[in-house]
Design goal:
CATH architecture: Orthogonal Bundle
Keywords: Cell membrane, Membrane, Transmembrane, Transmembrane helix, Transport
Radius of gyration: 21 Å
Number of strands: 0
Membrane topology: Multi-pass membrane protein
Shape: globular
CATH class: Mainly Alpha
Subunit structure: The complex is composed of two ATP-binding proteins (BtuD), two transmembrane proteins (BtuC) and a solute-binding protein (BtuF).
Structural class: mainly alpha
Helix content: over 70%
Distance between the termini: 31 Å
Largest sheet: none
Strand content: under 5%
CATH topology: ABC transporter involved in vitamin B12 uptake, BtuC
GO cellular component, one term: plasma membrane
Order of helices and strands: HHHHHHHHHHHHHHHH
Number of helices: 16
Pfam families: FecCD
CATH superfamily: ABC transporter involved in vitamin B12 uptake, BtuC
């Protein structure tokens, strides 16, 4: 019986890994199609074949000078053709920012759901996004000298919001319902403060830019945004993958985790800090994009299960595919008018949230 049980477990693990691999391949396929569509359309149109050959041009892909120019801000090599410049310097950065933002929001949402033991948790619903957004909006409109420190400022704002949520929800401990309600309260207050800031903005251009940022948009992003978000994204993802064992223990419940010797509160806040850093990296370059951190972890969990490592790896692929795909829809749906991707994610995420409410008998706990 023991041997049969072990073989069954190995088969189950293999099946889960196969499902994860299938999820990754499918996400990469969606991302590839979205990339080619995004690159093809514009004032300088390309065929899908031209887009493919330009994106995967080995002369550019393997050029140290090109990557130094894009990632370090050096001069762009003069030998790049007009088509290569349009694709690599204008259109691809928008896709790469979408990849970073989608991965960050999905990973942070997965972490928050585990930390709070609440499947309704996400950076947006817990007020973290609004806290980070308020600080970033202040920098965009009133303290422009602080713009180089946007990810750090966003992290501080998100951390302050999450701490406030925890304080409000705490009453001899917390529970899923109180955390969500506290998050809604904090998010509503910070959202109101964001809207109030517009009454103090005299410059119409600044007001329009801030409004676009609040809607969550990848329009106008370039390699500067990639240089801002990439280091924080890499750090947050690496840290998240290093604490998957602690996340699995937290899934067992607070009492079980304490009985295993885990300092639960200390671990919970450290892991939450990773999620806040990940959220901040996304908000600093793309604004407030809701629902990605809520729906992607659910989609991945339904396919690969609750194992934290598989969940986070799945989120790293599904999040970018979903967000870049949504951005293509935002760009092409009402062309030549380009909608902010945050509007599309809200239109998709809202119905999914309602579907989740109708489907789950015990909504709130993982």
């Amino acid at each position: 019986m023991a041997g049969l049980s072990e073989r069954s477990e190995r088969v189950r693990e293999t099946w889960v890994d196969t499902k994860l691999a299938t999820l990754i391949v499918g996400s990469l396929g969606v991302l590839l199609v979205a990339t080619l569509l995004q690159v093809s359309f514009g004032a300088y149109p390309l065929t899908l074949s031209e887009a493919w050959h330009t994106v995967f041009d080995g002369q550019v892909l393997f050029s140290e000078a090109v990557w130094r120019a894009f990632l370090l801000g050096d001069d762009i090599p003069a030998w790049l053709s007009r088509q290569q410049l349009i694709v690599w310097n204008i259109r691809l950065p928008r896709i790469l920012v979408g990849i970073l933002v989608g991965a960050n929001l999905a990973v942070s949402g997965a972490i928050f759901q585990v930390v709070t033991q609440n499947e309704l948790a996400s950076p947006y619903i817990l007020g973290v996004s609004d806290g980070a957004g308020l600080v970033v909006l202040l920098a965009l409109t009133m303290f422009t000298g602080l713009l180089p420190f946007l990810p750090i400022l966003a992290a501080l704002g998100g951390a302050g919001a999450f701490l406030l949520v925890y304080i409000i929800a705490w009453k001899d401990g917390t529970n899923p319902v109180r955390l969500v309600l506290a998050g809604v309260i904090v998010g509503t207050v910070f959202g109101s403060l964001q809207r109030a800031l517009f009454f103090f903005i005299d410059n119409l251009g600044v007001a329009m830019s801030a409004q676009m940022w609040l809607s969550g948009s990848l329009l106008g992003t370039d390699w500067e945004q990639i240089r801002i978000a990439l280091p924080f994204t890499v750090l947050a993802v690496l840290l998240a993958l290093l604490v998957t064992r602690q996340l699995d223990v937290l899934l067992l419940g607070e009492e079980t985790a304490k009985s295993l010797g885990m300092p639960v509160e200390r671990v919970r806040f450290f892991v939450a800090a990773i999620a806040i850093l990940s959220t901040a990296a996304a908000i600093a370059v793309a604004g407030l994009i809701g629902f990605v951190g809520l729906i992607v972890p659910h989609m991945v969990r339904n396919i690969v299960g609750s194992n934290s490592k598989r969940l986070l790896i799945g989120c790293l692929f599904v999040g970018p595919a979903l967000l870049v795909g949504a951005d293509v829809g935002a760009r092409l749906a009402l062309s030549p008018v380009q909608l902010p991707v945050g509007i599309i994610s809200g239109l998709v995420g809202g119905p999914y949230f309602l579907y989740l409410m109708r489907k789950k008998e015990q909504l709130g706990e993982i």
